[in-house]
Structures are given as C-alpha cells and as structure tokens.
Amino acid sequence: QQRDKLRQYQKRISLNLERERALARQLLREGRKEKAMLLLKKKRYQEQLLDKTENQVSNLEQMVQDIEFTQIEMKVIEGLKIGNECLHKMHQVMSIEEVERIIGETQDAVEYQRQIDEILAGCLTEEDEDAILEELNAITQEQVELPEVPSEPLPEKIPEASPIKNSPKPELVAAS
C-alpha cells in the first residue's frame, strides 16, 4: 500500500514539475526573471523529493521481495520440520536390528532360490540323467501304436492272379 501511495505521489509531483516548467517559461517571456528563478528553485527541490521518493519505492520493493523470500524459506523450513518428524516416527517403528534381520532373511531366501536354480539348471548326476532317459523311452513307447498281428498262420503258397489285377496301386508304391 505504501508503495502504491508513493507511486501516486510521484505522479502528482511529475505533473506539478511540468506545470511549473511551463509557468517558468511564461514568466521569462513576460520578463519576470526573479519569479521564474524562484519557481525553478522550487521545481529543483521537488525533483530532489522525486528522487528520494524513487529511492524509498526501491527500498520498499526490495523489502517486499525479502519478505516474500523469507516466507518461502519459512515454508521450506516447516516442510523440513514435518519431514524430519515423519522420519523420526518411521525410525521408531523400524529399528536397525529389524532392518538387519529383514536383510538377512532376504539374503537367505535369495541363496535358497539360487540353489534351486542350480538344481534345475542341469547340475544332475549321471543316475538322474539315466532315469530321465528311461522315463523318456517309456513315454515314447506308450505313444507308438503298433498294428495288430494276425493270429492265423500265413498261407504257404500265394494263389496266382492276373498280373493286371494284382499290380500295386500307384499311391501305395509312393507311400512305401
């Protein structure tokens, strides 16, 4: 508010300076040199006041900036204080011993998983390999279906038939 009031005061003085300068010219034209000189002295004094006012405005603006920055700093400090309290509460909940215990359990679990991975990755003995091959053979034997063998004895002599009727069919030749 003070800054705004000082700005209004500066405008008012600036307007007065313009009027007094114009009045001093008019007085010089009229030949009233002493009165014009007095008016110019008054103008000079008001210019000095205007400079002082400008310095005060600068000081006020600097003070406003300092206050705003201090408010920001206070908010940062308050945030740090709240964060510090939160960390303190978290430290009370979780002790160093608890953290060390959890880390130890995690390392044990990782080591156990590594051992499992090694077993699954191929660290098998020859006996395990042989057992796996036997199981694979058993599975493949189950999957192959062989045709049934006739239980009747085979004839000793095959009756002769005409060569055209008994010639193999082309699709059977290609399949065999």
UniProtKB/TrEMBL annotation:
Cross-referenced InterPro entries: Snf7_fam (IPR005024)
Family: Belongs to the SNF7 family.
Name of the molecule in the record: CHMP6 protein
An individual GO BP term: vesicle budding from membrane
Record localization: Endosome membrane
PANTHER family per UniProt: CHARGED MULTIVESICULAR BODY PROTEIN, CHARGED MULTIVESICULAR BODY PROTEIN 6
Region of interest (Disordered), residue spans: 143-176
Record bears the keyword Signal: no
Keyword Protein biosynthesis: no
Lineage, broadest ranks: Eukaryota, Metazoa, Chordata, Craniata, Vertebrata
Pfam family, one: Snf7
